[in-house]
Specification:
about 500 residues, mainly alpha, 2 domains
């Protein structure tokens, strides 16, 4: 009897440390008893996605858009609601989260709707809150007070920078508030190593589709599912043709090859972790194939910053992958991949090296950084405002000669936050990122060898994004930031820490 009470006290202490909402009653919060509320939220969630189907059709297939738009809206709303309802009711949380990232990239960023994915993520969090149970617990992100400070400090710069609808929808809803929403979503989904593995499988599959789209664009010159506006934009920038060559840099749905390169540099670490986690031969072959496709697509972006970030991520992965034979397998894979790329694609590798040594681009990037530093020195506390247009206008008096053209941001996420929102916001942003990585390392220490490979892959992906954000606006681009913060929430989730703590306690009692 005494041992039972001790176990109950331990469980209570663990739940308290995890900040799990107290008073969770399985009967009270079951799907059945909360069905009217859940049905409303699910219908709204599906409708938010599907209501944009007519707009998507009008941009992708103009001829089809000439038909009855009202009928398209009704059927689109019903179809989207049904799909989301099935996913949520079956508790395929990982698929729902991956769908949010896909919507962020294609609908919000590519088609320009900006906030659809954020509404979807909030609706998913509401569903998870109402349907919480011992099997699907509700949990808050750690250091919630720090998140509150981050949101509060960014309000004034967001108001100052919202000189147009685009900037108003771009920064605060996605980069500031969206960081908390995506991190929270990843935190709630990551109940244990199995859920982390499932989420990473879904994200890796999505990344592979983008890699295939990138390869097709580079090899065939055909941009699948391109809109007329994007085709016109790509024509205006000569399809990002490399200087002195007929080759074009592939940007996929990110448009900009540097953004696409950052995405691929992050995503290739997920199948790498899954490779070491998997115990089946077909699974390992699948993950190796995903990695190779992402590496090949990364080559076609010709992004120097992305390759540097990839190297940084590999260094982190080697350090934290754990067992010595895992490091040996990783070294073998890198050697084989490098050989295949060099031997099979020598002209592309040569163009990558040529592009990396281009002095004009390096000079412009250095000038953008120097201008950003001068803007921070002039507006250290509040910045010029979270907006692209206001930065271009107010940074122009501080522009150095090396930045020979006006720019809407300093091509560095950290300088961008500091120049636009002020140093206090930048300090809190870095503190949130470092604290989350510390918690991820805490989870890594308690994990077994296979789970460590998963957490290691997430840490490497976040490091790759963080390193690449020195040369481009990685953490300040909505689709990249959404993916990054979701991974951060996944690997730092207190639910994983609690699960590992209970497993360790059980092993000690055996």
């Amino acid at each position: 009897m005494g041992s039972v009470k001790i176990d109950e006290r331990k469980e209570t202490m663990i739940n308290t440390r995890l900040h799990i909402l107290p008073g969770v009653d399985k009967d009270r919060f079951s799907i059945t008893s909360s069905f009217p509320i859940l049905a409303t939220i699910i219908a709204f969630l599906g409708g938010v996605l599907a209501v944009f189907i007519p707009s998507i059709i009008s941009k992708v297939l103009p001829a089809l858009a000439a038909t009855n738009v009202l009928a398209q809206s009704i059927w689109g709303f019903a179809g989207g609601a049904l799909i989301i309802a099935i996913i949520v009711i079956l508790r395929q949380d990982e698929i729902a989260a991956t769908l949010v990232i896909a919507v962020q990239l294609y609908i919000d960023s590519y088609l320009g709707f900006h906030v659809v994915s954020q509404v979807m993520a909030l609706a998913l969090l509401a569903v998870f809150f109402l349907a919480r149970s011992p099997q699907h617990p509700w949990v808050e992100p750690r250091a919630l007070w720090l998140w509150g400070l981050f949101l509060a400090l960014a309000i004034l710069p967001a108001i100052r920078g919202a000189t147009n609808l685009f900037d108003a929808a771009f920064y605060y809803p996605n980069i500031i508030f969206g960081a908390l929403v995506m991190c929270w979503l990843g935190t709630v989904i990551s109940r244990d190593s199995a859920s982390v593995q499932c989420l990473f499988k879904m994200l890796a599959g999505f990344g592979t589709l983008i890699a295939i789209h990138t390869i097709l664009q580079a090899v065939t010159g055909t941009y699948l599912f391109a809109t007329q506006s994007e085709e016109a934009f790509l024509a205006g920038v000569s399809n990002y043709q490399l200087t002195g060559s007929d080759a074009h840099r592939a940007g996929s749905f990110f448009i900009d090859p540097n953004w696409n390169g950052t995405f691929l540099a992050m995503m290739l670490f997920l199948p790498l972790g899954l490779f070491f986690k998997s115990s089946s031969f077909p699974g390992r072959v699948l993950h190796l194939t995903e990695m190779f496709l992402m590496l090949l697509a990364l080559l076609f972006t010709y992004s120097t910053g992305a390759w540097i970030a990839t190297c940084a991520g590999f260094i982190v992965f080697v350090i934290f992958v754990g067992r010595a034979h895992n490091r040996a397998l990783l070294a073998l894979f890198l050697a084989v991949a490098a050989t295949v790329l060099i031997v099979g694609f020598p002209s592309q590798v040569a163009l990558l090296l040529q592009h990396a040594s281009n002095p004009s681009e390096a000079l412009l990037r250095l000038g953008a950084w120097q201008t950003g530093i001068r803007v921070i020195a002039a507006f250290p506390l509040t910045g010029v405002g979270l907006g692209l247009q206001i930065y271009q206008a107010r940074a122009d008096p501080y522009r150095v000669p090396a930045q020979y053209v006006p720019l809407v941001h300093p091509h560095d996420s950290y300088l961008e936050i500091g120049a636009m929102a002020g140093l206090p916001v930048l300090i809190v942003f870095i503190a949130l990122l470092l604290f989350s990585l510390w918690q991820a390392l805490h989870n890594w220490v308690r994990a077994d060898a296979q789970t460590r490979s998963l957490l290691c892959s997430g840490i490497a992906a976040v490091v790759a994004l963080s390193v690449n954000s020195v040369s481009i606006n990685g953490w300040t681009l909505p689709p990249l930031a959404a993916l990054g913060w979701m991974i951060v929430g996944t690997i730092s989730s207190p639910l994983i820490s609690g699960k590992l703590h209970r497993q360790t306690a059980e092993e000690r009692n055996l």
